[in-house]
Every structure is written in structure tokens, then in C-alpha cells.
Design a protein that fits this description.
- The protein is α/β, with parallel strands linked by helices.
- The protein has two domains: 3-256, Aldolase class I (TIM Barrel), CATH 3.20.20; 305-375, Orthogonal Bundle (Arc Repressor Mutant, subunit A), CATH 1.10.10.
- The chain has 15 helices and 17 strands.
- It has helices spanning 28-48, 71-84, 104-112, 127-133, 139-151, 170-183, 200-206, 215-231, 250-256, 283-291, 305-316, 325-332, 336-339, 341-349, 370-375, and strands at residues 3-9, 11-12, 24-25, 55-63, 86-97, 117-123, 157-163, 187-192, 235-238, 241-243, 261-264, 269-272, 275-279, 297-302, 323-324, 353-356, 359-362.
- The strands form four sheets. A nine-stranded mixed beta sheet has the order 9-10-8-7-6-5-4-1-11, sandwiched between helices. Strands 12-13-14 form a three-stranded antiparallel beta sheet, with no helix packed on it.
- A hairpin with a 2-residue loop joins strand 9 and strand 10.
- The chain is globular and about 55 Å long.
- The chain starts with a strand and ends with a helix.
């Protein structure tokens, strides 16, 4: 079975104030060590996985900030991947990018290596809001980044945006959405800000220095995004994601369809042959495992059939098309309507779920209450 490949690049020039992902400040020696042991991990899986488990249909460099790496580093990584795995023709290869860490020559170099999709973390075009988030770029730099990407030959761009930022108004959000469609990326991701416990931004809000966005305003921003982007020709195909026709993110669809994927690098997660596992979150621990020719796994869990059904339901319901009930039956030999009959009936009665054309999906009322729905399948 084919898999998606995720590669975690755990370096940033500066950690954003809202971020709780595993990342480290950029350090040349740490980068050198990371590359040495990442190649070892690639080779380790290349020599141990069966051929049918090494067919790669998508590669996603996430972070951190992958574009803190130089082009020769990407070349080293992709050369190792192509030597150890069977990379499918037309494989989607995405690199996440921060507008403050890219330039024309670097983007041209990535394109020449076969990178064919760029995901740019814009978050906002308003500089004051970027400062609240602790971003290292300006709104003008974000626009310039898109222009540079187009010049380098990228014809598949995603732009990430955040709503519900402290101090953000509905007007700010609508202005950002308008600017986004004027740039015309193929894909737009719009996420509500999560104030993760312990992050500097959460602590600032907790002590009252700034106020969080009211829930009703955040809900209105979400609805504004859906209405505006769909009228501009973007398909709202996942709770937070919008794409021009045929430009849905192939890699993320692997997650939402609960298909196998392999994660490489510190803190990367994997799902292979019924086992979910995560790498050691510390860079030192990750390197230490690999120096002993061990898999750098921090913990693992065997997925039961019941777990797999549950995850297929709540992940699939993230897609606006929902869960294909016939495919569910073919995969598990059981009808979702029987396994989850009580939950489906209850949520249907509340107007949060419905079945149409053989698919179970969230209603317009259910979309903003998705987490309430998902809990019924866990």
C-alpha cells in the first residue's frame, strides 16, 4: 500500500508566540547533526520496510520552518528519499515556508529539486496582528513571497491564515481574505487561533495584558471565510481548507482518510500497519537512538479494529464530503450505520449530521460544532 511521507524540520529563526510545536532556534551545528541522523533514519526505513510499504505518493516538509534549511540540504534529503523509497510519478512534494526565510534563488533551487507545492505561513496581512502572533515577517513580505514563488515556477501554492487573533476585527479578517483571493493561491487554509497552554501568547492573555477574541466573533469570522471563499471559486473541502478545483492537498487527505503515513525527524508521527508511533521529541534523544542504529521512537500504540473505525469516522467527518459509507463497509466489513447507529441518529436529530448520496457528513449547523460531533465517535 502506498504511504505519505512527512519530514519534520525542527528549526526556526524565532519561535512564534502561539506555537507549541517541537522546534528549536536555528543553530548550524544542530542542523548538521539533524541532517546526518535524518539520513540515517531514511536509510533505516528504506532497508526495513517491504517494497509495497515504500511507495510514496506525497512528501511534506513541515516544521518548525523548513525553509531555514538551504537548498543543498533539501537536495541531500530528497536524494536519500529517492534512493530508499519508491517515489511515485507526479508525487506531491510540499515545503512549508515562512515569508521571512525565502528568496528567489532558494525557491528556484527547490523547484529544480522537484518540489512542486509551497505552503506559505502568511497568517495575516496586518502587521500589528503579525506582531501579536510573534511572526518574523511583514504583510508586504508575504505578498513578495508569493510573487517570488510564482517567478520560480510554483503553480501550486497554499497560504495559511489565522482568525480569532487578539485585537483582530471582522474588518481585518475580511480585508485579509480579499487580499488573499487577489493573490489567487490555489489553496487557502483558514484556522481559528488555538491558545495553547504555556505558550507566551496564552500566558499574556491569561494575565489580562490582552483580550482573547470573543467566541461569537470567531464563529462569525469562520462563517465569513466559508461564504466569501466559496463565492470566489474555492471548494470548501475540509473544515479549515479551501481549494481551487483539483488542488486539494494530497498529503493531508491521507490523514483525513486515515491512510498510512511515515513521519521522519524529531517528534514526527507515523501510522504503519496498525501501529501508531511517534519519534522522540528531543533532538538529542532522536540523534542518540539513531547513533545506536535504533528506531528513534518515543512511544507507540497498536490500533485495534475498533480504534481504526472510530478514527476513520471522526477524521473523515473533517471532510465536507464526509465519510463514504460503502467504502467504510468495504474496509471494515461492518456498516457505520450499525456500529454508530445511536450516535448518528442523535446527531441527525440535532441537525448536526446527515446522510446523502451514500455519505455521512456534517451539516452547515454541524461545521462550527465539529468537535462536539467528533466526541460521539471516540
Amino acid at each position: 500500500m502506498s504511504i505519505g511521507l512527512y519530514i519534520h524540520v525542527p528549526f526556526c529563526i524565532k519561535k512564534c508566540l502561539y506555537c507549541d510545536f517541537t522546534s528549536y532556534l536555528l543553530d548550524n551545528e544542530a542542523v548538521r547533526n539533524y541532517l546526518v541522523f535524518l539520513i540515517k533514519e531514511i536509510n533505516l526505513y528504506g532497508s526495513s520496510l517491504a517494497d509495497e510499504d515504500k511507495i510514496i505518493t506525497s512528501i511534506f516538509f513541515g516544521g518548525g520552518t523548513p525553509t531555514t534549511l538551504l537548498v543543498p540540504s533539501f537536495k541531500m534529503i530528497l536524494t536519500a528519499v529517492r534512493s530508499s523509497f519508491l517515489v511515485s510519478p507526479g508525487c506531491e512534494i510540499t515545503v512549508e515556508a515562512n515569508p521571512g526565510t525565502i528568496n528567489g534563488a532558494g525557491l528556484t533551487g527547490l523547484r529544480e529539486l522537484g518540489v512542486n507545492r509551497l505552503s506559505i505561513g502568511v497568517q495575516s496581512f496586518q502587521d500589528r496582528l503579525l506582531q501579536v502572533l510573534g511572526r518574523t515577517h511583514s504583510g508586504d513580505q508575504a505578498i513578495e513571497a508569493v510573487q517570488l514563488a510564482r517567478k520560480a515556477g510554483f503553480d501550486n501554492l497554499n497560504l495559511d491564515f489565522i482568525f480569532g487573533i487578539p485585537g483582530q476585527t471582522n474588518y481585518d479578517w475580511r480585508e485579509t481574505l480579499q487580499q488573499a483571493v487577489e493573490i489567487a493561491p490555489e489553496h487557502i487554509a483558514a484556522y481559528g487561533l488555538q491558545l495553547e497552554e504555556g505558550t507566551p501568547l496564552e500566558q499574556t492573555v491569561r494575565r489580562g495584558a490582552i483580550s482573547s477574541c470573543p467566541e461569537e466573533m470567531e464563529a462569525e469570522m469562520y462563517q465569513d471565510a466559508i461564504v466569501f471563499l466559496t463565492t470566489q471559486g474555492y471548494n470548501h473541502y475540509e473544515i479549515s481548507n479551501f481549494a481551487q478545483p483539483g488542488r486539494e492537498c494530497a498529503h493531508n487527505l491521507i490523514y483525513w482518510l486515515n491512510r498510512p503515513y511515515l513521519g521522519l525527524g524529531p517528534a514526527a508521527h507515523s501510522l504503519i500497519k496498525g501501529v501508531r508511533f511517534a519519534n522522540d521529541i528531543s533532538l538529542d534523544g532522536y540523534c542518540d537512538h539513531l547513533s545506536r542504529k535504533e528506531y528513534p521512537i518515543g512511544h507507540s500504540t497498536h490500533i485495534t479494529p475498533a480504534d481504526e473505525m472510530s478514527e476513520t469516522m471522526f477524521l473523515g467527518l473533517r471532510l465536507t464530503a464526509g465519510v463514504d459509507l460503502n467504502q467504510f463497509y468495504q474496509r471494515f466489513g461492518r456498516r457505520a450505520e450499525e456500529v454508530y447507529g445511536s450516535a448518528i441518529a442523535d446527531l441527525d436529530g440535532k441537525g448536526l449530521l446527515e446522510i446523502s448520496r451514500g455519505r455521512l457528513h456534517l451539516t452547515a449547523k454541524g461545521l462550527p460544532l465539529a468537535n462536539v460531533v467528533f466526541r460521539e465517535f471516540i
